[in-house]
């Protein structure tokens, strides 16, 4: 069953066409991967999907709702979150605090602030949930460390933790294992597989196909702002051996 689709999304930066009629379809519960050489438009596409850039034309649908050009804050209510290519933790705050700010606190809304006991209860539940996530990601022993002191790989995990706090339906990730050692990269994808079992859908952009190939359900290849190849399951093998695909990677 389809959860997300784009229809003919086009995006210009000035006169430069970064996305040219891009249509993709993501099934619920799948790990859909987009690959392509640097500058293909992968980040631009997920920026449009997650509301960080506005499309010039085309549509984006999530669970049959038209979500084209909605703001990221609004997409959060639909159950869409994203992580960034470069993790953006608040470096002076602790690991736990960074996870906690992944969520919206009802105490911040004036109407709820009156009910202090409700707010305290909510805080307690949030800390509990944050610790469960930290345990899942094997970061709980670092809960009171400043986020700025984490390794690059740990920061990537922290980014995932922040996304999980919002209990999303769809997690969109831009190069989650860029610059991460192979061992930790597989750890990250094993976490993704565990979350997939809980019904979370993943749309991931990644450069390093060698590591992620074994985990994916559906593959798209982008080049020059267009989808040039696509396949699911058994077809994926054919996609990566497609001469068009091989050629752009040799040039990369
Ligand atoms: P990828 O993620 O596949 O490496 P991007 O989506 O980041 O590619 O970029 C696609 C193209 O759009 C590149 O040529 C890039 O230089 C250009 N581009 C990306 N963002 C901007 C921007 N904000 N302004 C102008 N050009 C941009
Ligand atoms: Mg990119």
TrEMBL record:
InterPro entries named among the record's database cross-references: AAA+_ATPase (IPR003593), ABC_AA/LPS_Transport (IPR051120), ABC_transporter-like_ATP-bd (IPR003439), ABC_transporter-like_CS (IPR017871), P-loop_NTPase (IPR027417)
SMART domains assigned to the protein according to its UniProt record, in alphabetical order: AAA
Q: What is this protein called?
A: Probable branched-chain amino acid transport ATP-binding protein LivG
Keywords from the UniProt entry: Amino-acid transport, ATP-binding, Nucleotide-binding, Transport
Q: Which PROSITE patterns match?
A: ABC_TRANSPORTER_1, ABC_TRANSPORTER_2
Reported function: Probable component of a branched-chain amino-acid transport system.
Query: What family does the Swiss-Prot or TrEMBL record give for this protein?
Result: Belongs to the ABC transporter superfamily.
* This protein's GO CC annotations: plasma membrane
Is Signal one of the keywords UniProt gives this record?
no
